[in-house]
Structures are given as C-alpha cells and as structure tokens.
Amino acid sequence: MRYKIAALAVSAILMSACAQDATPPADEFYGTTEPFASEAIYFVMTDRFVNGDSANDQREQGGALQTFDRPVPGAPDGESDNIGYLGGDFKGLLDNVDYIRDMGFSAIWITPIVDNPDAVFTGGKPVNWGSFWTDQGKTGYHGYWGVNFYRLDEHLPSPGLDFAALTQALHGKNMKLVLDIVGNHGSPSYTMPVAQPEFGKIFAADGTLLADHQNLPPEQLDPEHNPLHRFYHTQRGVAELSDLNDENPAVLDYLDGAYSQWAEQGADAFRIDTIGWMPDAFWKKFADRIRAKRPGFFMFGEDFRWDAKDIAGHTQPENGGISVLDFPLKAGLAKVFEHAGSDYAELASALYLQGGPYRNPYELVTFYDNHDMARLNASDDGFIDANNWLFTARGIPAIYYGSETGFMRGRAEHAGNRNYFGQDRINAAPSHPIYQHLRRIARVRAESPALQKGLQLNLELKGDRAAFYRVYQHGGQAQTALVLLNKGDSPSEFVISDWLQSGTWRAAFDAPAVSVAEGGSLKAVVPAHGVQIYFLDTAVTRADLKAQLAALMVKP
C-alpha cells in the first residue's frame, strides 16, 4: 500500500512530540550526545551529480587522450559507464540543495575536491566493463587521485563559487558539508609506458614539488638518497597508487595543513578514505591536530571490512575517536532488503547495542550501498523498506545519490554505479515511490531527537516484522519513539505491551493518537512495506523499562 502524508501534519505531530520537560528527569537515557548524530547524509559523487556550469568542463583537456567523456569499453548493448569527467560541479550541487534539503537531509558528503592530474592514466590494467582495481584509461573525475591537496580541482568551481563560497551558501540553507579526504595515497604512480607529468607527484601549497614516484615501482624507490621519494612507502599498496609514508612526519604536516585549510573554509566533518590502510597511531595524531583547532570535529572512516572487530578500533579514543562506516550492518541490510521473504533477525547481531566492540554504535554511519560496491539490488519495495529501517534504527543514515529512485540498482563500479544523474532525473524524482517514502521517513527523523540519538531497545526482529523503542531523555528533553516496521506484502497487526509506558502516544502517519492505560497495550496495523511510529513526550517512569535502558547505556 502506497500512501502520503501532508508535510504540515508531520510537522505538527513532531513539534509537539519534542516537548521539553519543565525539569530535567532524574534518569538520563540516550544513545549518544554527539551533535552530528542529528544529521542525515546525502552522498554525492560531485562530477556525476549535475553539470551546473559547462564553462569548467575542461573538454579539451588531455590532448589526444581527452579527459572528458570516456566510455568504458565492453559495455553490453544499451548499457554505459564512464571513466572521464562528465561535468558535475559545485554549481550543479548548489542549484539542487533545496531538492536535497526537502527530502529530509541535513548534510551533503562530497567526494574529494583536491587537484587531480589533468590527464588520462596510461599505466596499470585496462578498464573494461565490470573490472575492479583497474585504472588504465581512467581520469581523476572522482577526486581520489590528489596531486596538490591544497589546491581546488579546476573542474569544480565557478566564478564566485569556490569551496569557501559553497560551504557558506550551504550553511545559509541550513545544510552541513562532509568533505571526503584521503591520507593513504596520492595518484597512480608507476607502470606508465612513458612518465606522465603529474602522476606520482605531490605539490606544496605554493606549487613546489615535494614528492615524485618517478614512474618507479615502490620497491625501486630510494628514500634514503632521494628526498623526492621520502613521502612514499617502498611496498605496494592499492593498485598503482602511491602509498604515503605515515612514518614520515612531513606527511602528517602536509595532510594536517591541507585539510585544516578546507576545514577553515567551512567543511563541517570529514569522511576519511581507506582509513584502515594507515595505522591508528597516525590517525590519532591527525585527529588531535584537527580537533585542537576545531574541538569536537566529527570524522568517520572507511575501513572496507565486514567484521566489526576489524574496524571498531578506529572508534576508540586512544586511536583518535574516529567513527566508521558500518560495513558489518551493510552486509545484513543487503541480505534483508534485496530478497523477499528474508528475516529481520539477520540485522540483530550487527547492531551491537550492548557490550560490542565499538566506542559507540550510535555514532556509526549506516548505509546500504556506495560508490565502491554494487548498489543495492532491490525492488522499489526493498528500497522503501531499507530506508524505513535506516532512518529509524541506530546510527547516522547516509544515502548515495540516485538511490532515492533506485538509480542503477545492483550496478558496481565500471558497470554503471557512478553514472551521471543529471537535472532531468532530479526533476522527475518526486514522482517516484522510493523518493516519496524516503522523504516521508527522513523528514520524521529530522524532527525527532529519539530517532536521532535515542537508545534502541528491540522488541521484535523476526521475519517481515521489526519493532523497537528509541528513547532519548537528556538535558530536560524526553521523547520515546515506538517504531513498527512491516516489509511484508500484506498489512500486519502489532500488539505491543512489553515495557510500554502509559500515556498518550501520537502516531506519525495517518492514525489517531492512542491512550495507553497502566499495564495496557498498543495495537496498530502497519501497511505492507510500511512504517508506523508512535511518540510519547514524557519522561520514563516504568521501573522495568528504566532497568532495560540503564543496561543499554554506553559506558564512558
């Protein structure tokens, strides 16, 4: 069953649901007090979003091997992928910030903005349809091949719209900016038939050459005798990328200086690429330096591993206190939402609501796909169900551009994952059912402290049904959300009595308020592929509920 709800109704319900207690409660219950946990993130690969200014396309760049519009060879009939620039820029992003904001997002994560080589890479293995870790014939359209980390890549700005102007404009729209940064590597650096001018080099803010791989394989570098080799490790890393030497203090100085510059120009948070390829000791020093200048600055890293114990160490204070993308939960989300008849129980073990390895699971960034893996291969209903979970369960939700319409679903890199979205698709998106349901649930989360930061107490995770409380009681503010999810093809009736507090529970969607007596229950029918949330804006008084919540509180 598809259904809509008027924005005014949602606003009225949630404004009252967020009422403050006159006096702070004696007990405090919350998942996190991290300010950034209030945000919902829309992830944009800037070059592939919208071309707002064709004057910065650099369509003649590269000479005989032009960097603009380079189709991936071997594509099946009717399919396409591209490894050249396609024109997305800051203006295209800013032109559509209202579209992103109206969906319920409050932060935009953009791919790296630093200067990349002005040429096509001629080394490595040739890119073909569906290939992985292949870079021959590819450009730095994605931004991850930095050569000057202080300089803005020329494909992104427009007159009067540099990075500082972009962040200022976004902040004026009440939108934060998450900047993707890279510390592990620079550009592809060896295997070129003939050395290319920028590949394998790193330049200072003033353009001085600081490092040069000189088209040599890492094992042939000689940092002891050649100063230009000292930025790099002498063992191989990812593909043919230069591997920055975390043991060289000059590397830390360089990265701190560059990324502090972008933070000073308005970046609100960092997403750290390939964080697991450098030791925690390096990131601890980096995080300490950044936060010395910007206390509380939020960062989350990408460690592409599926076991929580392998990635949780980054979150510990002694390792920098850097949150991570929740890859273990992502694996569960794919199992549950890509397949009809799957079981919500698959998600329970990845939540780590009590006694897990993370410093705080409520500060993890949750997602079901991104630019480095196949997009979620789900039906429209599967996307709707996935979004209903992502915006009600613990964590900070992040949605990859185009997922609001199921764009290129199931596609991996070099097989359509990073295809150009464009203004026409944005204009058409509001008519899509995935978009409509995403907007609906995201706007509810945007107004609810319980859904943003509250403890999660599970009631049922079984088959097509999920039910849980989110409880936030802190600093004089109290809100409990009862979340009911149904991913089945038929309506489902829920009868909730466990730890249910008496009072008037107000429904977020198309249902009257429910008055619950002491010891009573709450009954609700949730539509097929639907969600219902009931809010109670009073302090927790039930002793057994308090005991359950106290056990879930994250220990300092």
Topology:
Layout: H1 7-17, E1 41-44, H2 90-94, H3 97-102, E2 107-110, E3 114-115, E4 148-152, H4 163-172, E5 176-182, E6 185-188, E7 201-203, E8 209-212, E9 241-243, H5 249-264, E10 269-273, H6 280-293, E11 298-301, H7 308-311, E12 323-324, H8 327-337, H9 348-351, E13 365-366, H10 380-390, E14 396-400, H11 423-428, H12 433-446, H13 449-453, E15 455-462, E16 465-474, E17 477-486, E18 492-496, E19 503-507, E20 514-516, E21 522-526, E22 530-536, H14 543-552
Helix pairs in contact: 5-6, 10-12
Name the features:
6-stranded antiparallel beta sheet; 8-stranded parallel beta sheet; disordered N terminus; TIM Barrel; alpha/beta; Immunoglobulin-like; 556 residues
Brief sketch in words of this structure:
With 556 residues, this protein is an alpha/beta fold. The protein has 14 helices and 22 strands. Helix 5 runs parallel beside helix 6.
CATH topology of the largest domain: TIM Barrel
Main sheet, how many strands, which sense, barrel? 8 strands, parallel
Helix content: 10-25%
What value does the average pLDDT take? 94
User: Quaternary arrangement of the chains shown?
Assistant: single chain
Under CATH, the homologous superfamily of the largest domain reads: Glycosidases
- Percent strand equals 15-25%
CATH architecture of the largest domain: Alpha-Beta Barrel
- Round the Cα radius of gyration to an integer and report it: 24 Å
> How many extended strands?
22
Structural class: alpha/beta
Number of domains: 2
Termini distance?
44 Å
- CATH class of the largest domain equals Alpha Beta
